[in-house]
Structure formats: C-alpha cells, structure tokens
Design brief:
The chain is an alpha+beta fold. Helices cover about 30% and strands about 25% of the residues.
Length: about 190
C-alpha cells in the first residue's frame, strides 16, 4: 500500500472503532492519532468499501506476478489462507497433493546451470517431477523439481550431506529472494501436482 492508502485505511479503521464513542475519538484526535493525508481523504470520498476494493484491485494488477492466490482446483473459489487445502465454498479437499516437507538451508546457482534449493527432507519422499511450493514463502510459484542431487558440506569439521533440488523455472527476482532468505531452516511443502 502507498503512504496515502495506509493513512486512509488507518483513518477509516479508527473512525469505525470510535463511531459509538465520541469521548475516545476526542482523546485520539488530541493525541494526533486521527490524522489523514489530503490524498488519503480523497481516496475515501466514495466510501470505505470502495476504497478497499480499489486498493485490492490496484495491488492485484501491479503485483500479479508476486502474489499467490490459493484457489480451489475444483470451483476456483479463493481459499481462506495461502496454506489451506480445503475449499470453504464447495468442500473439495486437496490435502493429498503434499508428498513431503522440506527445510531450506541455502540456495545457489552454478553458471549456466540450474538453480538449486539445498536442505533436508523432514518427512516424505521426493521425486523428479514434484513441485516445490514456494507460496508458503510468499512467492507466487511452484517450480518443478528437474533434478535431485546430493550437496556435501562441512559443519564443525564434520561432513554433512544435504539434498539439492534443481530447477530452471525461477526468474531472477525469485532467485534473489531465495538467496536472501539464507539458511534459516525455512520449511515448505513438496507437491505431486501444481
């Protein structure tokens, strides 16, 4: 959201919360909490609901490649959360597409080769052709696993073997984001269908 949109949203929320409490509104106004930018006021001129829809549509249009909308594969209804695997509209369940949990430790790319996600399989079995569900990291992609390699590293002088999933389906922004995540042990799902 832009600065003006945030200003309008906060103002509308405070207005709603204090509509039955003039005393609270006065306190908030005196403390400088009830402020809104000129552009923010303009954004609210057609009502709060219209404002929210306009902001949502703008974000969806401008950032459509970055956003993941978890929709039911049967009826295309928006699921309650990005991780949900049951439709609140038609009741369809798609829990069975998860085949494994994977904990990301690092990622890298060899020049002219695939991009690799390196880590540990926490549980389950992974095969070439499965998909890495990066939506849990806020990324709108589920790249296909094109190769599975062993990645040997040393930790405290001891050799440790990790698994590396190779893919060529990520763009440069997605690769950079995964590299920035680093070795925090981020866990996500491996799926048998996209």
């Amino acid at each position: 959201m832009t600065r003006d949109e945030i200003s309008a949203l906060r103002y509308s929320q405070l207005e709603f919360k204090t509509e039955n409490s003039p005393k609270m509104r006065n306190i908030l106004e005196r403390n400088g909490k009830f402020v809104i930018t000129k552009k923010g006021r303009e954004l609210l001129k057609n009502g709060t609901e219209n404002f929210r829809l306009n902001v949502a549509n703008r974000i969806l249009e401008e950032r459509k490649d970055d956003l993941f909308l978890n929709k039911c594969p049967k009826c295309d209804f928006l699921a309650r959360t990005p991780q949900a695997r049951q439709c609140r509209n038609c009741g369809h369940k798609w829990h069975n597409i998860k085949v494994a949990d994977f904990r990301l430790n690092s990622s890298f790319q060899l020049t002219g080769k695939k991009f690799y996600l390196v880590g540990k399989i926490v549980n389950g079995n992974v095969e070439i052709g499965n998909f890495v569900d990066l939506t849990l990291l806020g990324m709108n992609c589920k790249p296909k696993i094109e190769s599975i390699e062993f990645a040997l590293k040393k930790e405290n002088g001891q050799p440790i073997e990790d698994i590396a999933f190779g893919t060529s389906e990520l763009n440069e922004n997605q690769k950079d984001r995964l590299k920035r995540i680093g070795s925090f042990g981020t866990q996500f799902d491996i799926l048998n269908e996209k």
